[in-house]
Amino acid sequence: MKNQVQLCTYADRLGGTLVGLREVLEGPLAGLFGGVHVLPFFEPIDGADAGFDPIDHTEVDRRLGSWADVAALARVTDVMADVIVNHISSRSPQFVDFAAKGDGSEHAGMFLTLAGVFPGGATERELLAIYRPRPGLPFTPLTLADGSRRLLWTTFTPDQIDIDVRHARSCAYLDGILEVLAAHGVTTARLDAVGYAIKKAGTSCFMLGETLEFIRSFAGRAGQRGLEVLVEVHSHYEQQIEIASHVDRVYDFALPPLVLHAFFSGTVRYLRHWIEIRPRNAVTVLDTH
After folding, report:
1. CATH number for position 236
2. Cα distance between residue 2 and residue 34, in whole Å
């Protein structure tokens, strides 16, 4: 990633399509940005969570264009794309197969359930310890085709089914996404919602030691394909510093509020301290999506 201003946008909101976005960056916005983060352009862009619930993470939504258009954009500027590691759409072929076949599905091991994380059952205290960025508990009931019932882990919405990122099927799924991105000129993979990726009984299920191990492993696999990794984790600043030592880039979420604090309080004490300790591979951010 170039040390320049980076544009963050949905293709349909600036240019209308991937071709239109490229034309804007080659035309009226030429030379202004060192790269562009194209927010989810996968199939579909208008699901339950503004594209962060792809049915097919390896297909471009036809309303925006094709992988050839992504490659053409990448020849004009550096391109960053999201890799949504925590979950997959309830309408994805993998989950539809699991819902129809249950444990007989080749994809069964991909999907996290309450019983899968708490095989002996969970206490009230354990359930209340789980951190979720939404109201309520992160579970959605599902009736399989054979009539059996499961409690699926759904951190964000019922349409976004959490996957077991350490299962072989999930690893192959995520590696396949990296392969497609690299093959079409994407230079940076933004690791979305990774703080929730590892679930472990008796913990908050957010940014565990095992989560950091997964981030290191994923960054290594991306690096083998020539991709840099930018990690998105909204957490304590000490965790950001730790993560930064294992990946190419992290977001500097602390800087904007500290700048505002300096203006309103009349002191730069805290801003100065942060600048002294902040990771040098942090991306200064005004907004992400």
Report:
1. 3.20.20.80
2. 6
112 contacts 156 by C-beta, under 8 angstroms = no
**Catalytic residue (one of 192, 228, 248, 252):** 192
CB of 67 closer than 8 Å to CB of 55: no
Residue 232 annotated in active site: yes
Rounded to 5 degrees, what are φ and ψ at 58?
-110, 10
**Whole-prediction pTM:** 0.93
Q: What's the distance, Cα to Cα, between the start and end of the chain in Å?
A: 18
User: Is residue 289 included in any domain, yes or no?
Assistant: no
270 in helix, strand or coil? helix
| Three-state secondary-structure class, residue 261 | helix
Please report, for the domain that includes residue 130, its CATH number: 3.90.400.10
Active site residue 192: yes
- Please report whether residue 184 resides in a domain: yes
What domain range includes position 280? 6-85+166-284
Choice among 61, 69, 232, 252 that is catalytic: 232
Identify whether 78 is part of a domain: yes
Cα–Cα distance, 73 to 23 (Å, whole number): 9
Q: Could you read off the pLDDT tens digit of each residue along the chain, which spans 289 residues? A: 888 999 999 999 999 999 999 999 999 999 999 999 999 999 999 988 999 999 999 999 999 999 999 999 999 999 999 999 999 999 999 999 999 999 999 999 999 999 999 999 999 999 999 999 999 999 999 999 989 999 999 999 999 999 999 999 999 999 999 999 999 999 999 999 899 999 999 999 999 999 999 999 999 999 999 999 999 988 888 888 999 999 999 999 899 899 999 999 999 999 999 999 999 999 988 765 5
